[in-house]
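User: Let's play a game. I give you a shape written as tokens, and you guess the letters that built it. Ready? Here's round one.
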């Protein structure tokens, strides 16, 4: 199950929950509305239904070095069921398997900084609150 490559300077968002197409549409609308520029490459492919982090890590470990993805975001059941649409950010490179949640409102900031390597995954993960959710560096 090779992972698709995101478009230039965008982050890959994989849909893993296929229970409600309306919730998926709402999540994408919220993510797109949060930023002025496109920050996401959306993938809605049932082969990723209920995929877990370990399967993604295994897939990336088997990929050629030039084809590897550094990080990605999962639109899972939590994303679909929460009005803030918190995506699950997954580190596939520096600390493989490390995760945090990022609500749609904060996605453009996280995506942009990761895409241009201005900040590392750990910068955001370390700033996550007690629930494991990044809400800005001031706890926004």
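Assistant: Ready! My guess for every position:
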């Amino acid at each position: 199950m090779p992972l698709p490559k995101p478009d230039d300077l965008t982050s890959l968002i994989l849909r893993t929950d296929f229970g409600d197409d309306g919730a998926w549409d709402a999540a994408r609308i919220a993510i797109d509305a949060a930023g002025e520029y496109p920050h996401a490459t959306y993938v809605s492919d049932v082969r990723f239904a209920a995929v877990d982090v370990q399967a993604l890590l295994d897939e990336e470990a088997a990929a050629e070095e030039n084809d590897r993805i550094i990080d990605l975001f999962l639109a899972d059941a939590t994303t679909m069921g929460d009005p803030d649409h918190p995506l699950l950010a997954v580190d596939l490179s520096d600390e493989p398997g490390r995760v945090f949640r990022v609500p749609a409102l904060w996605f453009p900031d996280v995506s942009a900084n990761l895409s241009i390597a201005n900040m590392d995954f750990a910068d955001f993960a370390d700033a996550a609150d007690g629930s494991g959710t990044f809400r800005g560096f001031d706890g926004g």
